[in-house]
Amino acid sequence: MQIYRQVYHGKESKKYTIDLLDHKGIRRRFPGVADQDLSNSMGVSIQKLIRAHDANESPDTTTLYWVSKMPSTLRNRLIEIGLLDAKRAGKSMEDYIVEYEDPSAHPKVKKKDSSQISMQANRLRRICTGCKFVTWMDVVLHADKLDSWLREQDDFSDNTRGCYIKVFRWFCSWMIEKGYADSMPKGLTKGREVDVQSYAAMEEAEYLWLLEMTAKAGESYGLSGPARAILYRLAFDTGLRRGELAAVRVRDVNIKQRTITVAGVDCKDGIKAVQTITEGTAAILKDYMKGKTPDVRLFDRKTLRRRSSKTLDTAALSDTKTADMLRDDLDAARKAWIGKAVNQDDRQEREQSEFLKADGERGKIVFHSLRHTTASALAAKGVHPSVAQSILRHKDVNLTMSRYTHVLHESQVQAVNSLGEVYEKNNSQVKTGTDEAADGEVLGGPNFQGQFQGHTGGKLVDIGGHKRKPRLGFQAKNAVSSEGEGARTLNLRIDSPML
Hints:
By secondary structure, the chain is mainly alpha-helical. The protein has four domains: 2-80, no CATH class; 93-194; 204-411, Intergrase catalytic core (hpI Integrase, Chain A, Orthogonal Bundle), CATH 1.10.443; 420-499, no CATH class. The chain is built from 20 helices and twelve strands. It has a three-stranded antiparallel beta sheet, covered by helices on one side. Strands 4-5-6 form a three-stranded antiparallel beta sheet, with no helix packed on it. Helix 9 (204-215) packs antiparallel against helix 10 and helix 16 (369-380) packs antiparallel against helix 17 (385-392). The chain is elongated. The model is unreliable at 193-197, 307-319 and 433-499 (pLDDT under 50).
């Protein structure tokens, strides 16, 4: 390799020329720069490309980074002579994202899911802007920036951060599949599985208390107390998300049919939603909308929009203004509930409970928790899973049942109370069928009365004229036949230390 300044018409050029043999053994001249050291460095980098090409290996990261930053004229020249791959060299991240966004680049993706690809492309653009990923080499060399950038986004929930990581890793896999990249960038965070169940669902009593206290409260976050209570009711009745509720206008509400319509462009899945509301909510909403023009939004969009990360405390727990608003109303409702304690013991018990608590062992409550509350309430009411799925507009019923449906404490209490029917059958007639005794004889006969008293050491006892061995640990009192001779329907009360 030689570095020199050429002479033209008796005048020496200001820039250096790089003279070397390429991978085909052909002498090539490349334009350098005015600085000799920089020109020499360029020549060394070109030689590294030639050696990598001869060895059929990928150049080192330093050389690749230099390629991504080189002038377009030099890059085009190297592509022309075959030292650089045209598919990889010279493309910006935006070029790759535009290709990724094209539905034809994903033949396995259905047309109805194309909106998801567009959403992923927008997230990729936001990542590249935030992390300053201009070329693929920026990703290769500084992939760890993604994790740092996501931690700085205070308006992101843990779940949202996880989604951004998944999207970027999908994009990297697509780059490898297309031959634009050799492997997954080192240092790229794998993310973590987000425990969606950390979003708690409210008990029915909690939800009703929240509505009552909020309706009596004053203005907060740009909405009056009654307006916030209506917002929570709509979120619960319809399962609509924050952004979907923010798009609802007066004209989208049909009080007579008790429906709220959200345009597809405002829905997460891109499909128009027509959600039914309860009669009580329709009546309250009718009064709330009096005097409002059809084009007016039901709620202040500024209140329902995402907060700017520049104005946030980095320790913020929620991802939207509505989350903070709901948590503040929960806190106020909890204080009012504790204040209703009848005595000191009652107050202490209430203070130790998780009733209306925004953060606790069951998880945390944010605005999105209202969707979890809806799913859980529908399950508690015995609504079929497919119906609950349609209300929440999930594509997979497993998502509705496994992630959004929580076992409420009230349901557990009702379930355990139902076990009491086992004991209540003492006063009802139960058909027992054939119950053979230990010695082969059968319980039955007219006016059957008897009593098992513990373990008798295997001795036969006289029960209503029948000789048989008593059962260990059970006590049948006043067992009376409800039918005539040979009947098997007996009134038995089981007294066992195991029950």
